[in-house]
Write a structure and sequence with these properties.
The structure is a homodimer. Chain A is α/β, with parallel strands linked by helices. Chain A contains 26 helices and 7 strands. The first copy, chain A, is elongated.
């Protein structure tokens, strides 16, 4: 059965890889763009749409705000990318916000960054998968009722791919990214070209379908003054989701081929350029074609219909949108386990997250991420617009901390050009801090409060775990030198009769100590006397102690006996050797009392008491017990041509 | 926490009772009637009703058949009671059908009886509780939607009472039985008296409300000829449910005070007389008042309304009906665990069912019965008429086997009067066998087929369990005499550094063997070399073996090393001593790898390998490890005034 499991595991996840193959798993620039930029680039699938959903109460007037808002966001994209370019060169081993904030601002800021990042990685998976499924259901509306199941299935698939290891997923995922880039370019170029020719202006100028939920939130009347400003700010806050994922490349510098910093910086530049183009293009086209959000079809799908019609090009756009969003989720599958591993190494997360699995992937982190993201998709019914208000908040905390950390870094290092470098990172920090404030203020009641509660909770948890490991390390630290031994080691063997499992336990007991006592708990008056008689006849040199148990408990009399031994000072150390039946079939377990297990549990907290189970394998020849049967065994051993010299008769008899 | 659990357990179930209090828990005749007859007597609450439900398609004509059918059944009640009276004297220790059938007809028939009884005890609980709840919902129709929950809660309560032990439940349950007997007598006497005076004849002779379900089964037209005969036979079969429970007293003879046989026989006579009176009376009154079954009110409740009105007398009838039906379920709570214990003693059921718990009750059997009965109530939505077709079939198998066994018993014993005794039991056997055939034939499609499938399955299961225990007993049987010892016992201690838990494990290892090897699995190249250097400096006389693990597995290199040791013949027996961290709080378990557990599991099936976990208690002074630190410890030991003589420095240094 164990080997069936092993084979199944290998079919699903591939054969184990040796540690020295780690280097070969690294990313080229092209593959790096596919694996690490998808989170960032794919946000064009929902960023414009989220802005429009907020502004929908303005009717078609919304369309006139979307382009300027997008322009401001693109400016921020470039600013943030320039900031992170500096981080890449300063931290060529991979400068995640956690590392940068911890190194430069101290542990607490590092943990704030870590908690924010963990939250956002989970949300990246949930949001990207939900949005990806929306791309599919836009093309096939009959799938809408199955959206949640499809989302959960996609996450399971991603988990399986990532458990196989990073390079293979990089290769498998390169094609769809580049197809998406090509399709988006085709969409934008065709759309803008037609727009410049003046063909196909906004087809309808009448009432536009408006997401009823958004309208209900703000009220029916068109807002003016402060209300309008708030609305535009909220639209801007939602659109800023486009900037998420910019940090992915600087977190993953270490995964690039050498020279990794240079390769990562180039990839970052490409990523920012692509995102800026696509985001501006989408917003421009949405205005040009007067496309407004609807619950059942995405903005990108509507643009696809307007520009490509209903044919193969439209479907290629939708499939590649789905594919790049799956890739975006995959970015989190690379980053979450890596951050968990770093945190685990720093003793802030359970050590199970530290180690790479058979396939060099951080298996536990991958599984944990998948489970948490699936819970979110399930809770929010796979609805992107419900998840978005929670998203991006953590990202901007990290951006701010990371840039602020860089300012300190330059200040301390005094590297050439440190003044303008610090200024650039400083502007980045201020800008992202402002966006964070706008995010929290405008989206607080929409769900942002959840994040505001969760991040501090995670920080407390990380600190609590750290405290445990620290005190553990201090406690187990060994300072002494001279080893000492117990002079008197008593072994107690609970017996229920004269059987082979008992004989096996007695052989083991006499092997590890001179002082062995068999103990029989007499729940049924009379049985003890009978066994005593048999025991004397057996005459193996081990005394049998019969203890009565009027209350029919088996454990308590043994515990009392052992306590008497240790309290009286008769025994410095007591080992309880319990015969344990190991059945052949699972159901046979139900037919045997789990005495060994109960005794282990009962004595787990008793000092200087060790419980040892000596297994007796049903249906196999059990060596330990057979040793007791001298005459038969010795012949067998001699025949086997080995071992007879290893057997001596015990001196008891 | 353990003591909180213990206290809670004592509050719920009382303090443990010593085994020698068993005798005092026995039943007087009055209490015996309350505890053991309730199953039988309480069947008047549904027996007449089930007959009428079947006959309902005949309209009010049904009423003319119910009295003669009941008459025949009462004749059978007396016959079966007389048969069982003989069993009581022949088996004064408690002659359940299983014992009688096994002793006289052989094991297979014994097992058929046992399987039938187990099935019927479960159904007794389900049917009685469902019917009891129907008595309550008849009085309070607003409770109808909660019927299932009320049923489940009643079973849980019964379980708790029975876990407290048998005498207390007998006392607590006596009053309601006698109240029911008084209320039923009052109902019958008042009803018959008025009937004889000619007052209050059938108030409505027009169309009578008919259970739509029964009608649907048979068709709308009034049956004649063969169909009518079949219907009457089915009505008779359903009415025979009144006879169930007759065996309870002869099963429980052993629970009576001395002279137990005589007391039991007297009680059996009273029980039969009471049942016969009540059953005949109910059927007569149903005809007299032309009462027909309805889904929401029981026959007994309708009679109560007719005869007592809506006042206190009516409510007393309903409550006492509920109470005696709960008692009926309680009979099964006495018998099922007792039979399980007997079967367990004969190795046909898991041995966990054999032993009495703290309160002298067979705890496991009680819990198992409660769970199975609750599943049935839940599956059948607490509907008595759906459960009844499954019921009684098993009972009549047992009646037949038990009486047939008694015929053989008399034949063999040739006791005075064996001829007429054998004849009486023979007539009983033939009568009950005929009823069994009628039951299966008339109710087969109504659910009886389920029982026909389940009983053979249970028999197979019992036989399979028996086979396992038999082969287990044969296998572990010990025949040899001279004990032998292992000459060479090697201890392997997996270490991850020089810490107190490791030191503790090493102290234990050197205590139990001369040949101790520490093993370090090197998953991260370089760590091994560092530890080797530290280890040499530590200089404790135990060699450190560093094994590389390029695939990062911790278990496999240890397994390979141990295999090499045993295969080469270097070690006859290997003990792996693993340090095990025992945290203070439950959540701390999540922060430590369960290495000890994994190693135990990995080596469970390896011959001549024993795994011992040496616990290291976080937050407590851990003696084993502290022993390694000579200077500090010795002083402490001397201060403590004891034990210093028990410590010797290991010869290694």
């Amino acid at each position: 059965m164990a080997s069936t499991y092993k084979r199944l595991k290998q079919i699903l996840f591939g054969r184990p890889l040796a540690s020295d193959r780690l280097e070969h798993e690294r990313l080229s620039k092209k593959t790096g763009l596919a694996v690490l930029s998808s989170d960032n680039i794919s946000s064009v699938a929902y960023a414009t749409e989220q802005t429009l959903i907020v502004l929908a109460v303005l009717g078609t007037a919304a369309l006139s705000y979307v382009v300027p808002i997008s322009g401001v966001i693109v400016g921020l994209v470039i600013l943030v990318a320039l900031s992170y370019r500096q981080t890449i060169f300063a931290y060529p081993q991979g400068g995640g916000s956690y590392t940068v904030a911890k190194d430069n601002l101290g542990t607490t800021y590092g943990l704030i960054a870590a908690a924010s990042l963990l939250t956002d990685y989970i949300l990246t998976v949930s949001v990207s998968i939900s949005s990806g499924i929306a791309a599919i259901t836009s093309a096939y509306p009959s799938l809408i009722p199955h959206a949640v199941s499809l989302g959960l299935a996609s996450i399971v698939l991603l988990m399986a791919i990532n458990l196989r290891g990073v390079r293979e997923s990089g290769m498998a995922f390169s094609v769809p990214t580049y197809v998406f880039i090509v399709m988006m370019l085709a969409l934008i170029v065709t759309g803008v070209y037609r727009g410049l020719l003046g063909q196909e202006a906004a087809p309808t100028v009448g009432p536009v379908r408006i997401d009823p939920v958004s309208r209900a939130h703000v009220g029916i009347s068109t807002p003016v003054g402060f209300a309008l400003m708030f609305l535009i700010l909220r639209g801007f806050a939602e659109g800023c989701v486009a900037i998420t994922g910019t940090e992915a490349i600087s977190n993953g510098v270490g995964a690039f081929k050498s020279p990794s910093a240079k390769n990562a910086a180039t990839t970052l530049g490409w990523m920012a350029a692509i995102l800026a183009t696509f985001f501006m293009g989408t917003s421009y086209l949405a205005r040009h074609y007067a496309v407004m959000p609807t619950p059942n079809e995405t903005i990108l799908s509507q643009l696809g219909h307007h520009i490509f019609g209903n044919g193969a090009l439209y479907l290629a756009l939708q499939y590649s949108t789905f594919a790049i969003l799956v890739l975006a989720a995959n970015t989190a599958f690379a980053d979450f386990p890596r951050l968990s591993s770093i945190l685990s190494g720093d003793r802030y997360m359970p050590r199970q997250f530290a180690a790479r699995g058979d396939r060099l992937a951080f298996s536990n982190g991958i599984v944990a991420l998948a489970i948490l993201a699936m819970i979110l998709v399930w809770l929010f019914h796979g609805d992107t617009s419900s998840l978005i208000p929670l998203y991006a908040i953590g990202v901007f905390i990290c951006f701010t901390l990371s840039q602020a950390g860089m300012v300190v870094h330059w200040w301390r290092s005094k590297d050439p050009g440190w003044r303008w470098r610090a200024t650039l990172n400083g502007i980045g920090a201020i800008a992202t801090a402002l966006i964070f404030v706008v995010q929290v203020l405008t989206k607080f009641t929409e769900g942002a409060w959840v994040v505001v509660l969760i991040i501090p909770s995670i920080i407390l948890l990380l600190k609590k775990i750290h405290k445990h490991y620290e005190s553990f390390a201090a406690e187990v630290k060994f300072t002494g030198h001279a080893p000492l031994m117990f002079l008197h080691h008593t072994v107690v063997v609970p017996v229920n009769g004269i059987t082979k499992p008992v004989a096996g336990a007695l052989v083991y007991a006499t092997t590890i100590s001179e002082d062995v006592r068999a103990i029989f708990v007499d729940v049924d008056q009379g049985a003890g006397a009978r066994l005593s008689a048999e025991w004397s006849a057996w005459d193996i040199g081990v005394d049998l102690v019969v203890v009565p148990s009027p209350y029919r408990s088996v454990l308590k009399p043994i515990a009392d006996y052992v306590k008497k031994l240790t309290d009286s000072g008769d025994a410095e150390l007591v080992t309880i050797v319990v015969p344990e039946i190991v059945p052949r079939k699972w159901w046979e377990h139900l037919l045997h009392n789990k005495t060994a297990l109960y005794i282990r549990t009962a004595f787990l907290f008793r000092r200087n008491v060790v419980v040892t189970a000596v297994p007796y394998h049903l249906g196999h020849s059990a060596r330990l017990a057979d040793l007791m049967s001298h005459d038969e065994m010795l012949d067998e051993e001699i025949e086997a041509g080995a071992g007879e010299a290893l057997l001596v008769e015990a001196g008891h008899k």
